[in-house]
Amino acid sequence: MNSNDGVILEDRVQEILESLQQYAPAFVHRYTDTKAARNFVRPAPADFLFACPSGAYSIECKSSVEATLAKAWKDDERHRVQIAKHRYWIRAGQESLFFFWHVGSSIINAHPGQYVIEAVLAGGRAGALLWKAMPQADLPFYNGLPQWADFFRLDLAL
Q1: Helices 113-122 & 124-132, crossing angle to 10 degrees?
Q2: What does the alpha-carbon distance between residue 19 and residue 71 come to, in Å, rounded to a whole number?
Q3: Beta bridge partners of 112
Q4: Is the N end or the C end of the chain the one with fewer CB atoms within 10 Å?
Q5: Contact 42, 31 (CB under 8 A)
Q6: Which of 139, 121, 144 has its CA nearest to residue 131?
Q7: What is the β-pairing status of strands 55-62 and 95-100?
Q8: Mean of the per-residue pLDDT values for the chain?
Q9: CATH of the domain at 91
Q10: Does residue 19 sit within a domain?
């Protein structure tokens, strides 16, 4: 894993969400990356905000499950802000998603944010056990707009 892996995933997710926006009633917004802005901007609550008739989603993209479950991840100020913002978003009745992708894989794993946050906060062995029991959807990294539309319960007007 290198520092560009997350950017590759974010760029691909942006392409997919913007494509969905072209063919269905949807809205996508990509937040400014705090790290890329050299911490001159406040920590963003997520990487994307995506809204469609089935709901509003706060989406975070990560290139490593292991790094996300590590104690150092939740101790970082930016990530503490993200955890808090996702918790508020969920408490407000909206959906939070975390997308994970490993370089070279043709699959993006989508996990409900509430489960990811519980696993991160539990940490250690408990977090790893929660992770294994977590619901997951597998979405295509390449050529899979219909599967993405189904995931978000969208009817595409192709």
Answers
A1: 160
A2: 36
A3: 97
A4: C
A5: no
A6: 121
A7: parallel
A8: 86
A9: 3.40.1350.10
A10: yes
Q: What is the pTM of this model?
A: 0.87
Asked, for residue 59, whether it belongs to a domain, the answer is yes
Residue type, 44: A
* Residue 89 token pair: 């978003």
Give the C-alpha separation, 64 to 150, whole Å.
25
> Could you tell me which residues come within 8 angstroms of residue 41 by beta carbon, excluding any fewer than 6 positions away?
32, 34
Going by C-alpha positions, the residue among 57, 12, 11 that lies closest to residue 33 is 11
Residue 156 in domain: no
Q: 157 in a domain, yes or no?
A: no
Element (DSSP H or E) covering residue 72? helix 71-75
pLDDT in tens, 63-122: 877 777 777 777 777 788 888 899 999 999 999 999 998 888 899 999 999 998 898 888
Count: domains in the chain:
1
Enclosing domain of residue 107: 4-151
Higher pLDDT, 5 or 95: 95
Query: What's the pLDDT score for residue 38?
Result: 58
CA-CA-CA-CA dihedral for 21, 22, 24, 27, to nearest 10: 20
For the four alpha carbons of 64, 77, 33 and 144, in that order, the dihedral sign comes to: positive
